[in-house]
Amino acid sequence: HHESLPISSDPQEVHDLSIEFNRLLRSLNNQVLREHQFVADASHELRTPLAGVRGHINLIRRHGQEHRDIVPTSLDYIDAESLRMQRLIESLLRLSRMDHVDLALTYFNLSDLLDKIITRYQQQIPQQLVRDQLSDTRVYANQDSVEQIITALLDNAHKYSPAESTITFEVANAGDCIQLKVLDQGIGISDQDKPHVFDRFYRADQSRSQKIVGSGLGLAIAARLVDLNHGQITVQDNIPYGSCFIVSLNKTKP
Ligand code: ADP
């Protein structure tokens, strides 16, 4: 500020100010810690595939001449791992770009958007895509980002479900909000994992061990986008099995 700070002699006011100042300092401190953690996690996630790639390059260098058969296998490994790193870096960039943005929000019909997404995706995945009818589903949000959110949830529902299963979209009125549910009949998410699935780089052991491709960033990005739309995202069990992700979007300008 350019003006000089108003210096108060009222002890109550000084006390309040110092509390406010402390609060700000703490939140700034937390912010710095979070960024630090983010850089540490990202480096860790990149270090492992990179070490693998270097290992296979060495393998080809040392033994590629005598053992020709290892070359294509190693190249496949290098190819897959470098693709994984590329995807990871793209996701990281997307996340960091979203740190300081304000999305332009408008009114649009969520059901129309769902129809568009379903038509496009049904050809690409084996699971059956179904949505229930609801006429008035106008929301106040950013359409591109809502499309990204739904696509991320759909991607996961597809990855973590058997081919012969159904992915259902339900749209319902819920007070000031429209609630979108994405229900799958896949492997589900344990109660221990549920609180963490929106964290950056978090992957349930089951997904890591079953070698399902992923970075653990999809839901972190989706949650950030939901935030920018002033909405909410939660996860529950689907009954009798599978997962249910719920996105709430505002019906009107808050
Ligand atoms: P990933 O790239 O690993 O899929 P996400 O951030 O999209 O990362 O999801 C984080 C983790 O949450 C996943 O690794 C998986 O363990 C779990 N998960 C997300 N969606 C589902 C789902 N529909 N069914 C089962 N598990 C899921």
Automatic annotation (TrEMBL):
All copies of domain Histidine kinase, residue ranges: 41-253
E.C. code: 2.7.13.3
UniProt entry keywords in alphabetical sequence: Kinase, Membrane, Phosphoprotein, Transferase, Transmembrane, Transmembrane helix, Two-component regulatory system
Keyword Amino-acid biosynthesis: no
UniProt catalytic activity: ATP + protein L-histidine = ADP + protein N-phospho-L-histidine
A GO MF label: kinase activity
Keyword Nucleus: no
Chief localization: membrane
Enzyme class: transferase
Coiled coil: none
Subcellular location: Membrane
Superkingdom of the source species: Bacteria
Protein name: histidine kinase
Species per Swiss-Prot/TrEMBL record: Loigolactobacillus zhaoyuanensis
Residue window of the full protein shown: 214 to 467 of 467
